[in-house]
Amino acid sequence: MNNCGALAILSPESLGKFAPDTAQSLIGLSVNDPRVPTPSFLIEDEKLEKNLERARTRARELGVAFRPHLKTHKSIVIARRQMTSPEGPATVSTLSEARYFAANGVKDMIYAVGIAPQKLAEVARIRALGVDLKIILDSVEAAKAVSDFCREHGTEIPVLLEIDVDGHRSGLAPECDELLQAAKALQDGAGLAGVLTHAGDSYECKSIEAIIAAAEGERAGIVKAAGRLRAAGFEVPIVSVGSSPTLMHSKSESGVTEIRAGVCAFFDLFMTNLGVSKKEDIAGSVLATVIGRQTTKNQLILDSGFLALSRDRGTARQKRDYGYGLVCDAAGEPLDDGRIILAGTNQEHGILTLPGDSSLKLEDFPLGTRLRILPNHACPTAAPYKYMLLVRNGIIIDVLEHVRGWD
């Protein structure tokens, strides 16, 4: 006798599949509805729109073009709301993103990660589709590799030289000799399109004044690099800067042509600690379910581990450590005046320890209770999800596809 009641019987072929039309059936449901799977990545529509407009407004105030970094959400639906035109300009961090956005009509992109030689063939293939995909590099060796590829395949690839303005990561120092040597090495279809930098040290700032100083250092450094190239006879049409902290707090972008930023679409707890945003600005969160408790430890167990939240513990080195995220109720309001964090994770388990003096008790969270977790870093948190749920007033209004992976 079949005791499965109304449960559907799945064929072996259907196991592991979650069809797009099934995901679309979530539209109109409350986030508290048990049919909504957990963990899920939620995006508050009104907060998202406010954040997108804030970034565009800042770019207009600074008198530069806005080239948003799409890596935070990787979604064409959000990109079309974020970009200043349906064709861009935009920034991507993987060739999967470049291919996905190109297929959805975005024509003006910078792949803002130093180029690996084996990826040049895919860059050329995307460009052959009529997409102005530009790459970046920071050495004579890389410039020669791109030139050799273009010569061998009879193609053209525009290149931006990456400039290191703060010793943070990669790039050429504005004053170094290799800057001009790399530009000279771009030949036979590899053409200089400009210079690009990312003020990574702005993420280490302890005050707004320090972010303002980092923004000026970013601007001054890349303008110096562009000036040296122009003095040597090179055209430098693009002078590209950007990070969310410097976008929000820059006082001047004189000499700059465009600004990039990504996480400002969602914001997160790291940005909140920097003073770039407020907790109420954070548009993305992880929806989780209470699946157990450890009474002797005063702990709740959630179905959201480090795969759902990422292992980014960036707030640990800031003024407030949020563990693996700030715990909120299903409506997105922080619990217990914002004192409750997800203190620990395993791969699929989140561990929430109630403070000893909390007004909340374990009994306030029966099995199946839905909670939201505000993330430390929105980009890696959102990245692995099959789709993202756009919500308004606790109701799912859209299911957003996005791209994953690198190739």
What is the tally of helical segments?
12
Cα shape = elongated
Uncertain stretches: 1-19
Tell me, rounded to a whole number, the average pLDDT. 94
Keywords: Lyase
Family: Belongs to the DSD1 family.
Organism: Sutterella faecalis
Pfam families: Ala_racemase_N (PF01168), D-ser_dehydrat (PF14031)
Structure description:
Keywords: Lyase. InterPro entries: Ala_racemase_N, D-amino_acid_metab_enzyme, D-ser_dehydrat-like_dom, D-ser_dehydrat-like_sf, PLP-binding_barrel. The chain folds into two domains: 18-44 and 278-401, D-serine dehydratase-like domain (Lyase, Ornithine Decarboxylase, Chain A, domain 1), CATH 2.40.37; 48-265, Alanine racemase (TIM Barrel, Alpha-Beta Barrel), CATH 3.20.20. 28% of the residues lie in helices and 22% in strands. The protein has helices at residues 20-24, 45-62, 76-82, 95-103, 120-127, 140-153, 177-184, 208-231, 244-249, 269-274, 306-309, 378-382, and strands spanning 40-44, 65-66, 90-92, 108-114, 132-137, 157-163, 190-197, 238-241, 258-259, 284-294, 299-302, 326-329, 342-345, 350-353, 370-374, 387-392, 395-401. The strands form two sheets. Strands 1, 10, 11, 12, 13, 14, 15, 16 and 17 form a nine-stranded mixed sheet that branches. The longest helix is centred in the middle third of the chain and has 24 residues, at 208-231.
